[in-house]
Design brief:
Immunoglobulin-like; seven-stranded mixed barrel; four-stranded antiparallel β-sheet; 17 strands; globular
């Protein structure tokens, strides 16, 4: 299973202060604020970003970063092991890898950010270094929904592996075929119904109903039959930048019920399939 969005900065930007602070002071250096965000390109990779703003008036270097949240089994840490240097009044978004969800935690749990830092003094004398910890809010709500979808995905995965299988391109004007492969988990003791799969901003389906292709596939306890459902795939847009600027066009939302409870999880095409899909859209639209 693979697993919200808002524009955000992805590097150091002088003169670009963070939005209104959403963090408690904690033991942050005076003038430093932290917040959490997520870009479209982070979704499929299950990543988020810790935004740190340097309001100290002197350079600030950020080392190790951890996002600690009871909704995840382990702390989230930096994707790239490096030190980020922030000029005065600069902001940096540090990407962290989200671990497996801890599904016993509530959706309204609080997040805490811890990071190592060095702060120079304005007079050129030795500054200070240490580790700062503070509660961090979200620039827009995304963690609760991400956690809910993660936990639905875990429940579905306990009943069956649901992945994308074979992809058969088609000429312009006709739908391609993308298989949805379902392999039941031996000994599973829950019932899952795949209700439908939703279109993305780039791809849609022939036979769409209210934004989703109906599936109505039940995976009952004790079911051991492997299934492949052919999905009739079509581009939903052909404007020139649709593929070049795509971030989430191959991440599909799947509506389900698990033991009668409705939910939704995200199913992302793996990198090799994503490349084939984007190439096909380009060819289909150009034809």
């Amino acid at each position: 299973m693979a697993l919200i969005l808002a524009p955000s900065l992805t590097g150091c930007a002088a003169g670009a202060p963070a939005p209104a602070p959403t963090s408690d002071a904690g033991d942050l250096p005076p003038g430093v604020t932290v917040a959490l965000t997520q870009q479209r390109s982070d979704v499929a990779a299950r990543q988020a970003e810790v935004q740190i703003h340097n309001g100290t008036g002197s350079p600030l270097r950020i080392g190790d970063v951890q996002l600690i949240d009871p909704r995840f089994a382990h702390p989230a840490t930096r994707v790239v092991d490096r030190t980020s240097t922030l000029a005065p009044d600069a902001t940096v978004n540090i990407r962290v890898q989200l671990p497996e969800a801890a599904c016993g935690a509530g959706d309204d749990a609080a997040s805490t950010v811890t990071f190592a830092y060095e702060n120079d003094e304005n007079d050129g004398s030795d500054g200070r270094s240490g580790s700062a910890t503070a509660a961090a809010g979200e620039l827009f709500p995304f963690l609760a929904e991400l956690h809910r979808r993660d936990c639905v995905a875990q429940a579905v995965d306990a009943a069956a592996s649901v992945t994308f299988g074979d992809f058969t391109p088609a000429a312009a004007g006709s739908p391609a075929t993308l298989d949805l492969a379902i392999v039941p988990t031996p000994g599973a003791d829950m019932d899952v119904v795949l209700i439908g799969i939703r279109e993305t901003n780039l791809l849609t389906f022939a036979g769409l109903e209210d934004g989703a292709l109906p599936l109505a596939l039940e995976i009952a306890s004790g079911d051991d039959a492997t299934k492949a459902i052919p999905l009739p795939l079509l581009p939903s847009r052909c404007d020139p930048h649709a593929v070049q600027e795509d971030k989430r066009g191959t991440v599909f939302a799947v509506d389900v019920t698990v033991d009668g409870e409705p939910g939704q999880f995200l199913l992302a095409a793996p990198p090799d399939l994503r490349g084939r899909l984007l190439t096909w859209v380009t060819q289909w639209c150009g034809g």
